[in-house]
Specification:
The protein is an alpha/beta fold and 355 residues long. The chain is built from 15 helices and 13 strands. 42% of the residues lie in helices and 13% in strands. Helix 1 crosses helix 9.
Length: 355
């Protein structure tokens, strides 16, 4: 049987990059979402609601995917609701696919909250996990929807006999419009606003993040790791951290990002200056910038997610990850983090998303 991919969340940063990677390798690829992305050449859209079993049964009636990649989640007001909704999304999908007996491998993308705890936990200044973060670290004694999603994959694998892989990226750097967690584009929009208004490009986060070591995950890197794990026997049934492979300090990178946009950089000044507050009144300003420059997206909320950028940059601890588990099994992809940002900025400008 030839490989056929079903990418769940193909409209997001990870899913769209994964779809392009799979298509480049010649895989027939279907992209499932409530509102599928039709802009990726060759991607076959599948419209379905993961919370609606009947919707899934109808949408997937004629599909027999061999490889399923789950890259989406739904944000809710509480962690209890995150657990209920996001575990059901995984459970419903795999329950509908199970009777087809076509699935050979399921990959689930979660993230570093596996080690840090839910949003509310890791910003509260609790006990910091040891760094670099390793896959062998035990689960935290906290409610966490990532754990619930993993358990649904494990249960379905035991029932249906497929192999699995879990992928835990750090902050994703890549292009997507309408994404809820988009630090790279948020900073690009913020810098563009600073350029247009003469405001300083001011560090919004904590002292720990400003001075500490960090890493990020280029969307192209996790796309390659997902394909590698799905097709490499030695990679089966394992959890993998996935980052670019270098480390950096924001205190060194911030000025370089500012230089790219030609704005003045201001570093940590002893206080946190959340971007959510800094950009709270910028929606109409962005609409004016978009009109003046002929940009493709005038809705600031579809490009910037300052709340999530604040969570990342405001952490009271440094965060970096260990890649040994996938490296020793043969995954050797490396990406310069500085180039991740600059490549993204250039793509956003080329696609008329920033001036």
């Amino acid at each position: 049987m030839s490989n056929t991919a079903l990418v769940v969340g193909a409209s997001g940063i990870i899913g769209s990059n994964l779809a392009q990677e799979l298509l480049a390798h010649g895989w027939p690829t279907y992209g499932l979402a409530r509102r599928p992305d039709t802009s990726i050449a060759g991607l076959q859209p599948v419209a379905a609601d993961l919370m609606d079993v009947a919707s899934l049964e109808t949408a997937l009636a004629d599909l027999r995917p061999t490889h399923v990649f789950i890259t989406s989640w739904m944000r809710n007001d509480t962690e209890a609701e995150n657990i209920r909704v996001n575990s059901a999304m995984v459970r419903n999908l795999l329950a509908v696919l199970g009777p087809k007996h076509s699935v050979q491998h399921v990959a689930l993308v979660t993230g570093l909250k596996h080690y840090l705890g839910p949003f509310e936990a890791y910003v509260s200044g609790g006990v910091a996990p040891p760094t670099p973060l390793r896959e062998s670290q035990p689960r935290l004694a906290l409610d966490n929807f990532y754990y619930a999603q993993e358990d649904e994959v494990y249960a379905a694998a035991a029932r249906d006999g497929f192999t699995w892989s879990i992928h835990r990226p750090h902050t994703i750097i890549g292009k997507a419009v309408g994404n809820l967690m988009n630090l790279g584009t948020t900073l690009a929009v913020y810098a563009s606003i600073c350029k247009a208004t003469g405001r300083p490009f001011r560090w919004p986060g904590s002292k720990a993040q400003w001075k500490g070591l960090s890493d990020v995950t280029d969307a192209r890197v996790i796309a390659k790791q997902l394909v590698w794990a799905a097709t490499t026997e030695a990679a089966r049934n394992e959890a993998y951290n996935v980052v670019n492979g270098d480390v950096f300090r924001w205190s060194q990178l911030w000025g370089r990002l500012a230089e790219w946009f030609g704005v003045g950089a201001v570093g940590f000044d002893g206080s946190i200056h959340p971007l959510e507050a800094e950009m709270a009144g910028d929606a109409e300003l962005w609409r004016e910038i978009a009109t003046k420059n002929g940009l493709a997206e005038a809705d600031l909320s579809r490009l910037a997610s300052p709340w999530h950028t604040d969570l990342d940059l405001g952490r009271p601890i440094e965060v970096m990850t260990d890649m040994a588990n996938s490296r020793k099994r043969g995954f050797t992809v490396f990406q310069s983090t500085e180039d991740s940002f600059f490549d993204l900025f250039a793509k956003l400008r080329e696609d008329r998303l920033i001036p």
